[in-house]
From TrEMBL:
Main location: other
Compartments in which it is found: Cell envelope
Keyword check for Membrane: no
Keywords: Signal
Cross-referenced InterPro entries: Bact_Solute-Bind_Prot2 (IPR050555), Peripla_BP_I (IPR028082), RhaS (IPR013459), SBP_2_dom (IPR025997)
Species: Streptomyces musisoli
Protein name from the UniProt record: Rhamnose ABC transporter substrate-binding protein
Length: 358
């Protein structure tokens, strides 16, 4: 029996039984098997001229389903799939710190034998085994927004260069506080791959001598939960009365922090920047709490994740560096480690915010 048939029949078995049982029945996949399968998944020869398949099913698994950022992103994915003649489904946890929940959803999508999945990982390592299992069942895996590690997916659709994002957030805040004073970061979950990568670049940017009078005093975590982020902002200001600015590289965090600052004596005095949606932040830009912040269009990120998933499932790309494909009228080339960049972020301020609606 060819290997792909064995894989499918194992997946079919998984659909009817519990995954754990099915995996055992499938001869206890060893680590080496998974490695080999995974290598095969990306090493397969891509044919850029292959026809775009229709009738595929792509499952979206965001970090958190009730987060407006992912609502926009996944809507972009759904629209792209409808346009391409394929089906969309979405599963996912309601908390951004439910890693085991995310693993369960990967297994659910595998059992349902979707053709591809687009995943925003809450944690870089936790999903790896489940994602490799999905790939060894012939399912194409795209991460979007927040990556796992390169061996655990076929490609990562990144919202913007991570380095650009990290450095520009420091640059935005430094200008706002006149290159002087204590600053803090209010992030999402402590394990989040995307936020941690950006924070790494923020720290590196701060090493430049032009920031010698700026001191990063704390990194707090609001877990992409509005209430926790609000309380963490309050805590930062209590512990560091001299705080001059906060960077929030999360849409949930920056909105909650703006809400706290706008109602407190700190409004306009403690500067706030980071990543937010124009619709969440408009009010705070207009009332003088926030000068400028940035983001990409989440719907375009979801759109590109869906189109990448379909290109992989159609055999047009395999996820290897240097391969190119067309997505919605643009040609994208896969970079190092299977990363595909959506583009550059947009900075929003009082002058341009009304031109955006997301
Ligand atoms: C939150 C999530 C997401 C991140 C945005 C900026 O919605 O943490 O992963 O990309 O913020």
């Amino acid at each position: 029996m060819p290997k792909s048939v064995i894989r499918r029949s194992c997946a079919a078995l998984a659909a009817g039984t519990s995954l754990a049982l099915a995996l055992t029945a499938c001869g206890g996949t060893t680590k080496d098997d998974v490695k080999a399968d995974n290598a095969a998944a990306t090493a397969g020869k891509a044919d850029p001229n292959a026809a775009t398949k229709k009738g595929l099913t792509v499952g979206f698994l965001p970090k958190q389903v009730n987060n407006p950022y992912f609502t926009s992103a996944d809507k972009g994915g759904r629209q792209a799939l409808t346009e391409l003649g394929s089906a969309y489904k979405e599963v996912g946890p309601s908390s951004a710190t439910d890693t085991s929940g995310q693993v369960g959803y990967v297994n659910t999508l595998t059992q349902q034998q979707v053709d591809a999945m687009a995943v925003s990982a809450q944690d870089p390592g936790a999903l790896c085994t489940a994602l490799k299992q999905a790939m060894s069942n012939g399912i194409k895996v795209v991460t979007y927004d927040s990556d796992t590690t390169p061996g655990c997916r076929n490609a990562f659709v990144s919202q913007a260069g991570a380095e650009d994002l990290g450095r520009t957030e420091v640059q935005l805040l430094a200008e706002q506080i006149g290159y002087k004073g204590e600053i803090a970061i209010l992030s999402a979950a402590q394990t989040a791959t995307n936020q941690n990568t950006w924070i790494g670049f923020m720290k590196d940017e701060l090493k430049d001598p032009k920031y010698k009078d700026i001191r990063l005093v704390e990194i707090a975590y609001g877990n992409d939960d509005a209430q926790q982020s609000f309380q963490q902002t309050q805590g930062l200001l209590q512990e560091h009365p001299g705080l001059k600015g906060i960077i929030c590289p999360t849409t949930v965090g920056i909105k909650a922090a703006a809400q706290y600052l706008s109602g407190a004596k700190y409004k306009g005095k403690v500067k706030l920047t980071g990543l937010g949606t124009p619709n969440d932040m408009r009010k705070y830009v207009k009332n003088g709490t926030v000068d400028a912040f940035e983001l990409w269009d989440p719907a375009k990120l979801g759109d590109l994740a869906a189109r990448t998933a379909v290109a992989l499932a159609s055999g047009q790309i395999s996820g290897r560096e240097g391969e190119s494909f067309r997505a919605g009228g643009t040609t994208y080339t896969i970079g190092k480690d299977g990363v595909i960049n959506l583009g550059r972020p947009t900075v929003f301020d009082a002058k341009n915010i009304d031109r955006f609606d997301f």
